[in-house]
Write a structure and sequence with these properties.
By secondary structure, this protein is mainly alpha-helical. It is 52% helix and 0% strand. α1 runs parallel beside α5. It is elongated and about 120 Å long.
Amino acid sequence: MDLIAIFAFALSGAHLAVQKDFDLFGTVILAEAAGLGGGLFRDLVIGVTPIAFTDAGYGVAPLTAALLVYCTARIRWDQRLFDVADAAALGLFSITGTVKALSYGFNWAAASVLGAASAVGGGVLSCVLARETPSLLYWNRAPYSLPALTGAGGAAALHATGTLNVGTALAAALFAFGLRLLSICYDWRTPRSPIRRNPFSGMREQPAPSPPRSAPAFQPWTDETPTIHLPVVQVPKQRSSEDTVRIRLPRLQPARGTARHRERPQAAKDPRCDMDGTASDRTRGE
């Protein structure tokens, strides 16, 4: 069951890498992270050596899924195929993680949380490596952690009642698988906080901004359009002196002390001329 779930998770991780236009190495890394991330987290919390480092099959399954998706990238795979594979792996890992935690002495609450964490851990790790927000954190997407918690809680309840066996474990995994598929098909959503639906709840509401003013729409001319009548002004054809207004402006004198008021230097006078500028008698005699 672990290998089937790892292969299914690795298909989703490789598909995300192809969508992000990663190369072959990046596709393998994302497939390994999606397939083995949840199991590594579970084994580290329990305190045992991760089985992925002791069994070669746990590393070959994600590698096979990565090569399969990378080599057939030209084929337009239906997204529903990867959703079904991811839902199946989610249901299986939630059961196997819970059963392993219970076998190491964890109580039913801790085992349920650890089983759900091992189911969603691989997908979260691959999304973080691809720099995307994990889908289980979005409210507007189908619930992801709720089916994992349901399957893990069902396995813990079966163990508490002493009815946990292969058949009942598969039934719990199928229930988690069906819940995930129904949430995808019917677009179910988990509830949000009321403060998010009404951001002004519990605080003073601010007035809504007024919409920008737009230009008035063009209205065609009709008979009902109001008109304004202006008086007709008769303009004379010929102008007369009475129609002309003459304004005499005073001549401005420059102020004293300014550059324009300063007297220009007099030119040197000819000694042959008198003070009034006429020629002297001696000059005439000559």
